[in-house]
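Morning. Coffee machine broken again, so started the prediction first thing and wrote up yesterday's gels while waiting. Chain of 404 residues, entered below exactly as on the submission form.
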Amino acid sequence: MSRAHDFTLPAPPDRLTLSTPLRAVAAAMAIGGAGALGWSFARGDATLAWSAWLIGAFFALGLGVFGVAWLAMLHLSGAVWSVTMRRVPEAMTAWIVPGGALAMLVTLGAHSLYHWADAATVAADELLAHKSPFLNLPMFAALAGGSLVLWAGFTAVLVGASRRQDRDGGIAATRTSRAASALFLVVFALTLSVVSFYFLLSLDAHWFSTMFAVLVFTDLMQTGTAFVAVMVGLLVMAGRFGGFVNEHHLHSLGKMLFAWTGFWAYIYFCQFMLIWYANLPEETIYFLRRMDHGWLPYLLALPLLKFVVPFLLLLPRDAKRRAGRLVPVALLVLFAQFWELFLMVAPAVGHDGAAAHAHLPLIEFAGTLGFLGLFLFVFGSALARHEAVPLKDPALAECLRYQS
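Came back before lunch.
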């Protein structure tokens, strides 16, 4: 007799919802972030306000698009261990449309952030004039906005297939998801490059990097995996998953976070090493900006926050199998992502070609918490609308028998 015939499905858990304390924290974050951004605009500091907006909007948008990218990767790789926690990345994708719209509002403050958005500056700068067919607001809106539309379209296909499987069962939805996932990952590689170039790299419009899009991709994967680890870990500790997520599933999730942490260090070091080794003025200016005017301690703190500390904390096997140990490390990774975005944006938004002076990122952090609070509301609403686990997925039984 096959093992499938011997398998008994646990009692299905209730629909997943965010706890009342977490919803209260999300509300406080959203209100505090709105107040901090409103205060910055009111006092006339448009550069600080729009840079904080950009950091927070891109942080949250990365979580949203990670949801669909992670679904695509898991479908293609046949990662059966993730089936019972699939509702978390599916709910994350609900942010793509509202988050994309909020991110595109940064075009309203383009003149405060991007030197290439000022016609007089472009006319006096030969390099910016050369790049102007690409670096202009209509192209920004068309290419970045079009990328967001594509992400939303693929999200509808993948999440829609999951909903049909919840209703009808069968393997047809799984096949549809795999085919769509293969196409999406090709599109995602191209569109993420466009989005990261416009929103972040073009802040330093004289600089160029062939590895920047890969670095941003790694950021999204590490941070998104950390968010999934936080949400799944909290739900497991609250007993919301019943017998559908156990230490073996957490172990694989923890190993993914550990792997992305190591990969981030590899990509970040490669970008720095290649720029240092070539010693070209057009490339070194990026790191020189982040070493002068008081920024060096901030720069040195980044690899500690995003690699050294989480790497060491995740080394023990038990740290990846216990939610109580995995969640704090994942929260540190989320903070480290904010720190990296702060270093990408803040030193680049000085005036007259000079880097801005280092400062504590109080407004930027508050603004990011505000966007994260809004993200949690959208995420929680999407999470509660559907069953806690995909009970009709053909791989469910194999997932529940999974051992890491």
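Confidence is low (pLDDT under 50) at residues 1-5. Going to sketch it on the whiteboard this afternoon.
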